[in-house]
What does this fold into?
Amino acid sequence: MAISFDLTGKGALVTGANTGIGQAIAVALAEAGADVAVAGRSEPTETLGAIAATGRKAVNIKADLSSIEPVGRVIDEAVAGLGKVDILVNNAGIIRRDDLLEFSEEDWDAVIDTNLKTLFFLSQAAARGMVEREGGKIVNIASLLTFQGGIRVPSYAAAKSGVSGVTKAMANELAPKGVQVNAIAPGYITTNNTAALAADETRNRQILERIPTGRWGRPEDIAGAAVFLASQASDYVTGQILAVDGGWLAR
Ligand code: NAP
It folds into this structure.
């Protein structure tokens, strides 16, 4: 069988796609042929326009993913708009920074709920249809802090380490049903999430010095891996965390 990255006829749901990495992934999936629904709390005007410009269908689902309350509705609206959800990209995420000794319960719960709990329950809801059709792709957005502890971000490190666990757990149970579950661990990518780091001259210099590629990543740098993990080309890849980090973890 010829290797194919073509997503024509597929329905993809991407969370948190109004900006940054999610936006780049949503547009790339559309460029590869998928119809794309985006779910988030902010108006994704630019993303919807970019998807429509590829000639694919763009569906907007308004949802605050800081709790699992909207999960069922998000899948229902995605299925109503796309016909089915063949591809789910769990991208929505937040980060809270504070010194370890000051770190609050609120900053713990907010990050775990959005970055880990919603990711699992949205995957569970999407997987029901995928299992029924015996095919599907779930792509979770992990982090370098899936592998490392970071500084001043304990709930983020915990959540992103947890993403590795649930990715593998879901992969094991869903593999016999024809559903692959993988994650992408982006390196340091220029987005809202990292604006505070990039603005800190010392941290910015330290980060750049450690990246073999010698530059921060761009959201588009993540898109190729997402298309691969959403496509038939990755049908024998499951339970993996693919780092797209300019070589950071190789150091
Ligand atoms: P971003 O520009 O801040 O994007 C985060 C996205 O998640 C936004 O669309 C945001 O919507 C959405 N989101 C956050 N909380 C939400 C909620 N409660 N309900 C619905 N949507 C919500 O940052 P990004 O860097 O592209 O982040 C995307 C993913 O990549 C995250 O999971 C992040 O942890 C991960 N990541 C980023 C980097 C990096 O270097 N940038 C590295 C590793 C991993 P709003 O605009 O409404 O907030």
User: Anything to note?
Assistant: Residues 16, 18-22, 40-42, 64-66, 91-94, 114, 141, 143, 186, 188-189, 191-194 surround NAP (CB under 6 Å). The CA atoms of residues 188 and 216 lie 6 Å apart. The longest strand covers residues 179-186.
